[in-house]
Amino acid sequence: MELELKSISMTGVVEANAKAEHYRLLNQPKEAESICLDVLAADPENQTALRNLGLAITDQFTGHPSDRYGEVEAAFNRLTNKYERLYYTGILHERRAKAQLAAGRPPHTLLVTLEEALRCFKEAEAIRPPANDDSILRWNSCIRLLKEHSDAEWHKDTEVVDVGDSHSF
Is the pTM of this model over 0.70? Predict the structure, then answer.
């Protein structure tokens, strides 16, 4: 039995990208990711596939070290439009923080990640296309997340634990 990947045609790229988006909407990110990899094998700089790939991987974030942040960052860094690069990198940071919060990480350990998301959304807002408020919507989502926890939770100092005299075993 032949166990090698097959290539899609360049004429099938648009339809494949649409299928990847469809699978994301169906909450089947692994299927979407697979399709994006097929598109990128046929058209390595396909911007839609790079966006969809990054989003499909972020859809799989669990808040654990196995999350593939570097792969998402690499995909989004290949976006040629500066607005999109900033906007989608902001989404990466926002989703990373949300996944880690859901996994039980304390808010104060994620403040830098959320601040990076906010920075990206702010910069994207400054260069956004007319009538495109997506970066504002994501900014507001991050602000609401920050407000879900007290200021003290976001700015908690590192606790010092007294372990006693280190010489008395």
Answer: yes
- Model confidence over 55-72: pLDDT tens digits? 999 999 999 999 999 999
CA 11 – CA 84 distance, rounded (Å): 25
In the chain, helix, strand, coil percent, each to 5?
65, 0, 35
What are the φ/ψ torsions at residue 132 (nearest 5 degrees)? Answer: -110, 105
Task: Kindly give, in sequence order, each residue whose CB lies less than 8 Å from that of residue 42, ignoring residues fewer than 6 positions away.
Answer: 7, 8, 9, 10, 12, 13
Average pLDDT, the chain: 92
Q: Report the distance separating Cα 34 and Cα 57, nearest Å.
A: 10
Domain segments of the chain as ranges: 10-60, 81-155
Rounded Cα–Cα distance for residues 59 and 32 (Å): 10
Residue 167 has pLDDT above 60, yes or no: no
Cα distances from 58 to residues 6, 11, 21, 53, 160, in angstroms, run: 26, 28, 14, 9, 34
